Amino acid sequence: MEKHILSVKGVSKKVRGRHLIDSVSFDVEKGAICGLLGPNGAGKTTLIRLLTGLIRPTQGDIYIDGNSMKTNRKEVMLHTGAIVESPIFFPYMSGRENLRNLVRLHPNLSNEEQKQRIEEVLHIVSLENRADDKVKTYSLGMKQRLGIAQALLGKPSFLILDEPVNGLDPMGIRDLRELIRTLNQQYGITILVSSHLLDELQKICNKIVVIRDGKLLWTGSKDQLAREDQSLEEAFLELVSQ
Ligand SMILES: Nc1ncnc2c1ncn2[C@@H]1O[C@H](COP(=O)(O)OP(=O)(O)OP(=O)(O)O)[C@@H](O)[C@H]1O
Q: Minimal CA–CA distance to 7: which of 23, 24, 31, 26?
């Protein structure tokens, strides 16, 4: 069985003569919660857009559970859930109605399975009590959780979250952290999460990938990055200032 859920092999993205991502290679083991770190402009968003198939590499390839994005893109995307940038929902429709609309993107599920899956994902993200309220009445944290519910519709084994805690208050951050842990531990989903909030990544991740200027600067387990007496923030600042 494939040991890595994600293998990035020599990936570059060149736009107008400039490398936004430059020969990046790294792996993420199944079962990990992997943090993607990098200073502003490092290329995190570009990398995540490559990983979610929104843009294609100019060089290299990305493998998800052993499947090449180049040759097997459709299959790969079926098993990957993602929230990139803020999820967009119809504000005058309820959470459940929005999910009913989006579950149609998974034609491999029968009507009955689609209905059942909507209830399952609402339960996983703890939105069942508000599922019939209009999305415009949701807090930002609830919208993020609905975004995760949507990403879970296809029962992905790999979930990519781009800056999921951006703009959330401390309670929203705590709820999301708990949800990420539950998805990982209870549902066995491997997670890649980008964030500027190093403290947050330190709390939930066991693996870290650091990029700077489009290049891979460091990758390894969280414990290898930060010495015992160091916070992840100190270790990160030390690393990027080298
Ligand atoms: N389509 C594009 N064309 C040209 N340059 C781009 C394009 N998209 C991004 N860039 C540039 O590539 C670099 C990396 O951008 P990216 O948004 O991936 O970084 P980031 O690490 O996500 O930054 P931040 O943390 O500020 O969101 C930046 O200098 C950005 O201006």
A: 26
